[in-house]
Amino acid sequence: MSSRSSSRRSSARLGRGIALHLFLTPLALIWLFPLWMMVIFSTMPDRGIFSPSIELLPHGNFLDNVNNLQRDTNFIGAIGISVSVAVTYTFLSVLLTSMAGWALARYQFFGKGVVVAIILGTITLPYAVVLIPQFIMVARDFKLANTWVALIVPPLFNSLGVLFMRQSFSMMPGDLFDAARVEGVKEWRIFLFVALPLARPMLAALAIILFLASWNNYLWPLLINSKPGAMTAPVALGTLIGLTKVSWGGIMAGAVMLTVPMLVVFVLLQRHFVAGIAAGAIK
């Protein structure tokens, strides 16, 4: 009798799995189709992209489009700048948001509730509201336009990252940190060598989110940096859109060069990303 019931349960699970895959597979194909068409367009000449026929297989002009892109924008150099900015921004932002989250989670001080409320309030503000004041302060008051400091420092504070790390540190057992204090361990060592290793999955998830945000950032680098030789990759791609000519083949080739490596990185690190998000959401 028990073998029959277990067989029914396994058959029911198999049926639910098949139904779920039948439902999700078309959605996945719908999501992947624009990416595939981007790859197709990157292998076609400009005039072929607007051909009335629908092309679903790659052509042979990808290297030509890449060469034209490199000639017009020095795209390889722009990618190097984007990588440097994104890596530096991710490291500093993860460190800053972790310290802020640790303070909000583990210390009691006057006005703590007000600070948390202000951080929550900043999430509701559209980026366009703070963009112009931030530009005026950085470019006019601090004279930091066309510098790496202007590219990296202003977006460092991330409200969602602070709240995410606050939640992560709040879930950890306080007795562990109290025991370290009893042993005479200083606060900064508790944070660096006890709290951060325990929060490794959450830190990995936050780092992936922040890196992708910096990698795809277009508007702020466009405003604060006007030097052609110091453009990030998204801004360099935008320069291909002119008043009388648009290099669609180059744009698609550049979009592929920016997108595919990030997709590969995400696929390789998705286990850490999912684990970090799940660990930060369960209390």
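the 2nd protein, sequnce then structure:
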Amino acid sequence: MSELRFDGRVAIVTGAGHGLGRSHALALAERGAKVVVNDLGGALDGTGASAGPAAEVAELIRKNGGEAVASTDNVATPEGAKAIVRAAVDTFGRVDVVVNNAGILRDKSFGKMTVEEFDQVLAVHVRGSFLVSREAFPYLKEQGYGRIVNTSSPAGLFGNFGQANYSTAKMGLVGLTKTLGIEGARAGIRANAIAPVAWTRMTESLLPAEFEAKFTAERVSALVTFLAHEACETSGEVFSVGGGRVARVFVAEGPGWKKDDHTVEDIRDNWEAIMAEQPYLTPTTLGQQASASMKAML
């Protein structure tokens, strides 16, 4: 099989100054993509800013024979998102791939979390992914081609103590991804999300030390690179990835229980049937889920 190349393609990678984003940008550039390396250059909690991280990665790409431009614009503002996409169009003439990876952490137990800490995390992860994708969408639609890769998390899929803000944001990206997959389908735009486990500055204080060698960012970037390629026609899906393992994550609906005009007590008495997992359905659209509900009424 031939190598998957990105010659002639232009990719935007947000949060590309460190960790996963850096790895994604380098992987895409190595295979021929021209890359907009975006990173505000702030701390893990989103404070501060520096041109250094984005510039360093862009320079490394150029040193390796690739083409890249650095961007320090803020994904969480409409002006910043517009500037990021304009950097791709003005410098390279087009945009084909958007990898939404930028994120911050403001971990705190739910009872101690402030409204500001909740809002700031959603602003970068969810609002940022929405804004950058929205700015790129008209270009992708006009050319009849595009790939969007969003970054969810196991914390969003399954929850995690002390991360109500982060978990909410990461599950929100699942809904955004699935909707982008539906709305972009006719225009040749495919959107998917990853839920990665990797050793980065964001997770090094959370993961055991022995994870560093096995859960490298590069092992995540291989999946991102495939999802960003024209060879991948899959859309609207979420994939768990880490340590060399890749798996589809899906929403399932159990067989359920049915009785017309049921009471509160009926719900209580049939809770075991309601909680049953087998046989389960895996609807991929709202219509499929509604269809299953309608059939149960017959």
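The radius of gyration is 21 Å. The mean pLDDT is 93.
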